Amino acid sequence: MRILLPTICVCIAFGLPSWSQKISFGIVGGTNITNSFPPFESTYTGDSFGNPPSLFQHLTGPRTFILGAAVEGRIWRDFSLEVDVLHRPMKAVVISTEFLPDGTTRVSRLDQTAVRAWEFPVLLKYSLPASRFSGGLRPFVEVGPSFRTQEEVAGTEPSQIGLSVGAGVAYHWRRLKVAPALRYTRWARESIYPRYATKPDQLEFLTSVAYETDSGSRSVGSRRLEIGAVAGYPLTQGFREMPFVVRPITERTRYLVGISTQVNLTRRLAVEMDGIYKPLRSGEGASDPWRFMVITWQVPVLAKYRMTTSKWAPVVEGGPSFRLAGNLNGYNPSHYGITMGAGAETRTHGLRLSPAVRYTRWAVDVSPDSGRPTSQRTNQNAVELVFGISF
User: Fold this and answer.
1) What's the pLDDT tens digit per position in 2-53?
2) Pairwise CA distance, residues 113 & 295, whole Å
3) What DSSP string runs through 20-64?
């Protein structure tokens, strides 16, 4: 349920604006006001190997720059739905003091990025009626769930779900909108002992700059651009079974979610490009020492052909796929492959619904050091059940 819920919310977030004619796209930037980590101290008593007693002071790190993208669609009158994708570094400072045998101390300071997190707020917004204000200003309030993932472990594992509330004011000038806001998020409790816990109460100052459009003005050349979301379930494992290993890899719940764009070239022929977040996750529980994650972002570019013009039209698709990876943990998934798929497509109430099964054959993994082919550690064959919704 923890994985299914954010997937459903992202699909709803992109789908609901489909009933609206107005939608805005933009960038979001800002910084955290509260600290990312609570301060604490830990001690080490020394050992028989000559390592001296030490005091470790874990201090709150500096503020970091938050940057991302936002899409917002009006649902009904003064209500809208906004989805953000935010890159949120969380830094900490550790001061180590060693008490040497000669009575002196040795102090070292380590400024470290404890975790590079990605946040996905899904916010219901209410803007006060424009008739009450002049000069293009409209105050607003917002509330909704926030989801979070991370690129590397680095001794922390932030909770994946929280509740966000915020307030701000939007300035409208023609099709541009600038909206500074304060946003508070209460993150769920982290059960990650003995790792370092992050601070559950986070207050951020964010400003978005967005461009507002409607369904009739989105186009690429003379062709209409469709925008939506894609989500699904990988039917095959992401990690390859390795011979002579101490313990086989047990994968956690698999999922994929992302955004989708499509341009219709003719009545039957179209080109679709997706940006898909697909983590490869291992481990059975928070205390599992084999628990780790390899983050991948996939970008398939697919030619699609509708075989008929009926209400539910069979569709075949194919094209290259590209892949970026982070938080490698000794893995380095190949960066390109070939994707083929088959499914169906229908239109209802201004929406395009497109379930499909996709198969991707990835190239051989390469060494992160030399860039040459290495032992295959990820599965070259990937079969995925996907569902797209766009407008």
Assistant:
1) 444 444 444 444 444 444 457 888 999 999 999 888 887 878 888 877 788 8
2) 18
3) SSEEEEEEEEEEESS-SS--EEEEE---TTSPPPEEEEEEE----
